[in-house]
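Handout, section B. The chain below has 90 residues.
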Amino acid sequence: EAVTSAAAATAAATAAAATAASTSPALGTFGGDNGSYWASLGLVIMTAPGLWSLVKRAPKASVKGITFEVPGPAEGQSLDAVASTIATYF
């Protein structure tokens, strides 16, 4: 009895899979509910102003030329001391 019920369940699952495959939408078409499609599209469109605001307020890159004047090796400091002084500034 258990073997026949398992075989019947397998046959039913195979028939359901065949039915689902035959009712699937064609490639390139939307197979869902049109209400959910339009609701999702509306939500995406509603987020557009917020995304635009984030892009507009994004920080702009600015290039600054900074010249450091520190006593160098000619005045008695080693290159390591000069590099340490500049690195400490940052």
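Note. The chain is about 60% helix and 0% strand. Compare this with the example in section A.
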